[in-house]
Structure formats: structure tokens, C-alpha cells
Amino acid sequence: MNLTHRKYTFTLIIQYFCLLFDVGVNSFLTFARSNPADLLVLFVIQDFCLIIALTILLANFFSTYVFQAGLIQLLYTEFRSTLVICVLYIILSISLHSWHMTVHWNSPFLHYWSITYHALLTTQRSIAVLYYYLSKRTSLQISDPKFHESSAWVQNQFRFK
Known about the structure:
6 helices; Transmembrane protein 138; TM_138
């Protein structure tokens, strides 16, 4: 087992833990609704996990041979949708959490859902599905050896650059 394999195993475990925690909070949020302080802690940890997952993803990009060879545009075009969805999901999640805590802090069982709050919740949960899929796919793709060593694929990309 070489160093690269161990590194990616460790980063995959952390990324998958963050994804599972996010799924868990999104799925079982209503069970913590009675205590707003617990809900706030869950939201802060969830947002922290999202930022950690994005940071690990970017660190994995920066450690590739393709990035170090100066083919940043290639990585960007290859993983653009993942980066955009990750950032969008973080923004939507933080917005939803802030709004939820503002509305439900004093009266956690009040069912005040305006149309815009419902739209934000629906959008955030819809983007979450894309986020889970693209994060998992990208974390597996970035460990492909073609990104970490000089190969015919990288040489062809230099020719087209």
C-alpha cells in the first residue's frame, strides 16, 4: 500500500463521513426541533462538515500532477459542475439554517412556512441530491492515477493547451 493510496483512503473516509452526517441531519432534523440550542449545534456542525468536505476536495485537486503541471483549466473543466454545486449547496444550507433558526428559535413548534422558505427548503434538498452524487463521484475520480502521474493522457492535454 503506497502513500497515495493511504492518503486517498483517509480523505475518502472523511468525505464520506461528512456526507453521511449531512444526510443524517437533513433526514432527522425534525427530531431535534423541540430544543433550538441542539438544532443550532447540529446546523453549525453540518455547515462545518460541508466546508471541510470542500476543503478536502480542493486539497485533492491541488495535489494532482495535472494541477502541478499547470493544467488548472483541465481540472476546472473536468470538475466544474462539482465545484459549482458544492459552493451552491453550502450557500443554500447556510441560508436555510439561518432562516430556520430565526423563525423557530422562540417557538420551535410553530409551523410558519412562508412560500419563500418552502421554496428555499425544496431547492436546498434538491441540490443536496446532486451534491451527494457529484461529491462521491468526484472523490473517486480524483484518485485516478491519470491525474497523479505523467501519462499519455496528460501529454495529449499539453498538446491541446
